[in-house]
């Protein structure tokens, strides 16, 4: 895969409120990124800008085989989120408005890597301060920036 890529990140979250789930609209972001492979691990680097907030958050997605994906955020927002198949990981998620304790219980994960594409799907339960918050699915698609798949 080339160094210059496009990364598409889409997420669907169903809030847990009492005994029923409330489904929210899916979110999707497509942004240019840099890609490299080091020691058998795939890395994707991109900047995130939040409208109305000065500064930037630098993001690193690290894909280690088929069972571990990490998202590391530094800048305005700071977090090191680790998704490991059938494991729960806890991290502090630091925002300009304060810090929260986030639990990520990864239920399932699917990672597909080819010469021209990386597809990742992670299904997980998220809790905040040990209180269940949402069932989530995040999908990441990484393709070369010159790919015809993203031609508009």
List keywords for this structure.
152 residues; mainly beta; Lipocalin; eleven-stranded antiparallel β-sheet
CATH class: Mainly Beta
The level of helicity is under 10%
N-to-C CA distance: 21 Å
Count of individual helical segments: 0
The ordered H/E elements are: EEEEEEEEEEE
Q: Give the domain tally.
A: 1
Strand-pairing-aware structural class: mainly beta
CATH architecture: Beta Barrel
Query: In angstroms, what is the radius of gyration?
Result: 16 Å
User: pLDDT average, as an integer?
Assistant: 90
Shape: globular
CATH H-level homologous superfamily name:
Calycin beta-barrel core domain
The largest sheet, given as strand count, sense and whether it forms a barrel, is: 11 strands, antiparallel
Architecture overview:
There is one protein chain. By secondary structure, the chain is mainly beta. Helix content is 0%, strand content 72%. The protein has no helices and 11 strands. Strands 1, 2, 3, 4, 5, 6, 7, 8, 9, 10 and 11 form an 11-stranded antiparallel sheet that branches. Strand 6 and strand 7 form a beta hairpin.
Topology:
Blueprint: E1 4-17, E2 20-23, E3 27-38, E4 41-48, E5 57-64, E6 68-75, E7 79-84, E8 88-95, E9 98-113, E10 118-128, E11 131-144
Antiparallel strand pairs: 1-2, 1-3, 1-11, 3-4, 4-5, 5-6, 6-7, 8-9, 9-10, 10-11
């Amino acid at each position: 895969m080339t160094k210059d890529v496009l990364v598409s990140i889409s997420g669907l979250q169903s809030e847990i409120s009492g005994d029923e789930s409330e489904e929210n609209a899916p979110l999707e972001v497509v942004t240019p990124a840099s890609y490299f492979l080091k020691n058998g691990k795939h890395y994707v680097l991109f900047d995130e800008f939040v409208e109305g907030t000065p500064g930037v958050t630098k993001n690193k997605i690290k894909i280690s085989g088929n069972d571990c994906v990490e998202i590391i955020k530094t800048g305005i927002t700071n977090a090191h989120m680790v998704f490991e198949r059938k494991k729960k990981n806890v991290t502090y998620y630091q925002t300009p408005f304060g810090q929260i304790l986030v639990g990520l219980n990864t239920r399932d994960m699917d990672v597909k890597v080819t010469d021209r594409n990386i597809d990742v799907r992670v299904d997980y339960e998220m809790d905040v301060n040990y209180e269940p918050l949402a069932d989530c699915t995040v999908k990441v698609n990484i393709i070369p920036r010159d790919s015809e798949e993203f031609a508009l």
